Amino acid sequence: MIDGVQRTEISEYEWILGDVNAPVTILEYGDFECPYCRAARPVLRQLVDRNEGQVRLIYRHFPITSLHPHAELAAEASEAAGSQDLFWEMHDMIFTHQNALEFDNLVSYAEAVGADATRFADELARHMYLEEVRRDFEKGIIDGVNGTPTLFINGVRYDGPREYNLMQAAIDLALEQSGARAAD
Amino acid sequence: MVEPLETNTNAPEFTLRDGEGREVNLSDFRGRNVVLAFYPADWSPGCTTELSLMQETLDRIHGYNAEIIAVSCDGPYSHRAWAEQMHLKFPLLSDFWPHGATAREYGVFRENDGMAHRTLFFIDEEGVIRQRWVAPENNPAPGLNVIFSALDEMKGSRQGASHD
Q1: With an 8 Å Cβ cutoff, is B133 touching chain A?
Q2: In sequence order, which residues have a C-beta less than 8 Å from that of residue A50 and are 6 or more positions away?
Q3: What is the pTM of this model?
Q4: What is the ipTM, given to two decimal places?
């Protein structure tokens, strides 16, 4: 049974960190209330920063609400901030404040990152972006999420440790295979 | 080296206790599809483990007239505490004593460490193993697509006249 291969396409509507044309894509399915996703965050950011122009990170939502009751609303909040071009700022804010993810907290974070808080609060209260979050979840099932975070590097699921050197090695391999030059 | 049972064989009957000490027989589930998930141990690191993902999609799994039964060689008290911590609402069965007897019958008992190898058996309504997934060497959890592809296929072949 084929497992560990991304099946969904990368669309033009993804949240992308790094150069949009980078030859290596790390696709992450994350849960905002999951400590392992939080722990992976600096590693993933470093991989994008240090492989300038070569690596981009795409984030999709996979909230495990049975374990993490705030994860879905937090995901919606990131989408609401994203509609004001503040996705990554909100993403970082949420992960930094993982233990405080009630509605009011999320509004305060939106304010802190410079969003129109009134619009944000209204959209979040109406669950305007819930469908987006749930669509990501469905994609995650198709792609074969096997935990959070689930990471795909150029379409192949990476099941190794979320540790910088090991992931850089996987990225170097992907760069070679994509024909681009590996970073030094 | 484990040698899990092949597909198109009858799933061996077993009687094992769950975390509440209740006896559960595989034959109790005749008439429903079963996702029989052997896994190495409770309390594994990582919050959103294989079993959490199954819990998260449990309604969907039930929609296939399917149930999940998870089996490890841990004792029942461990299962009870683990299920409570992880909010798991499907049976966790204890293959603790005789140690690994059921895992052995399914060919998934690891002699080197006394745990069940992470394996999924997809058993149909008549008790036949229709598909299986065996974890590769690095022991990752199965992607959710594995479960739903198998359930889709089992559903499809009951409705249509397709043959393997």
Answers
A1: yes
A2: A168, A183
A3: 0.94
A4: 0.91
